[in-house]
Amino acid sequence: MLAPAELYPAVRRWLQVVGAVPHATGLASVAHLVTALLISQSLRPASLARTILSHAGVPARQRFKRVRRVLTRARLSSAQLTPQLVRAAVSLVGGRQVHLAMDTVRCGAWEVITAGVVWHGRVLLVGWEVLPYPWPKGAFTPAVIRLAQRIDQAWPDGPRPHLVADRGFPSLKLFRALEQVGWGWTIRLRAKLNVGIDGEVHTLRDLIQASRRGQWTCQSITYGTGRQRVAGQLVLGRGDALPVLPRHQANPGSLAQRRRQQTLRQREVRAKHPQTTLAQQTDGWLILFTSHPDWLAACTSYTTRWATEGSYRDAQGGYDGQHGWDLEPTLSHEADPQVVDHILGFWALGSLIQTSLGEQVGRADAPPVVLQARARWTTTGRLSVWMRGRFALADPSADLRSWILHSLDYTAQRLRPPSFTKPQPLAPAA
Questions:
Q1: How far apart are the C-alpha atoms of 164 and 117, rounded to whole Å?
Q2: Could you say which of 212, 243, 301, 346 would form a disulfide bridge with 186 (CB–CB 3.0 to 4.6 Å)?
Q3: 425: cis peptide before it, omega within 30°?
Q4: Model confidence pTM above 0.90
Q5: How far apart, in whole angstroms, are the C-alpha atoms of residue 15 and residue 35?
Q6: Are 285 and 93 spatial neighbours (Cβ–Cβ below 8 Å)?
Q7: Which pairing describes strands 110-119 and 200-203: parallel, antiparallel, or unpaired?
């Protein structure tokens, strides 16, 4: 396991290349805090204060003040970090189609709207908005549009991202904004909405009743019926008739668990909506409004939205409720929205570094010492890139020390602007 003094120089170089903090003093402060996060694996101020690199005689109260001083600076806000995070995320993903997953997570008295680039089953957080909960009337959609516009302003030249989101996000103003900036989108709709087909208004509930189970359809519609309506494709279908399951879930035990979950879901729907049959009739149907021309491309894009759920789980309790970063309890104790905003930026930087390290750990051409370490962590090999990065940083042996530092330097070189020299091949661990 690396000591903070060993990890700090590599983290500082990483943040310097990304350009997260231009000022030298601020860069050192943020690098110390990110190093403490990667070592302690918790966003709690107490864990950071105990881990942050300091002289031996520094008392605990002074450590807490130091942590708090960094978290109250504007250098960790979404407005400051989004341009650098966008550039770093697009560089890591490469030239492939970039999906941008948007979702919300509630942490105590705060509702956080996040947007992140999907990469290896997780999201690289690039922007966020903070709202008090319950939301002020009329505040949600403007916050979503501000977030999308901020990301678009920072997006590099080239193909625009494809936005995926759940049923809470659709609005005519949002679709108009996405159309203006040239983004693609695949967003789920609620069954109670109306859409336009050939100039006539139709309810999605009626379209569901006219559809057949197990058959997917795609037709041209307009979202909204006024002069500002937006054209797109409506994808409608129900995929539980012929489910395609991963190999590790296609066994009798997993199938039985799936049936139990479906039974509980049906019971929950009947209990929440006893007076109406709308929810019971439409539950299980997938209704997508998309810019894709066919249903298969739309469904493929929408499946990337689940990467957000995994990243939220990593940031909160982890896969077992005990190996996460304690995001919810940390934000629940905060009363200042600006501090909440800065903690989210702190989470974004730490997660970006750890996820990029986990991607290097999971490569097939990794050195033998890395392959041996991976074999010690799990019997199945099914670890997320975020968790692989965590296990690498927390590995009790000293086998991965030099390789981790080499890997962080190699990733930092990949993120350099084109004017810098190309990255050298990753050196094997000693």
A1: 10
A2: 301
A3: no
A4: no
A5: 11
A6: no
A7: unpaired
What burial letters (b/e) apply to 387-401, b meaning 16+ CB within 10 Å?
A: bbbbbbbebeeebbb
Indicate the residue type of 366.
A
How far is the C-alpha of 265 from the C-alpha of 282, rounded, in Å? Answer: 13
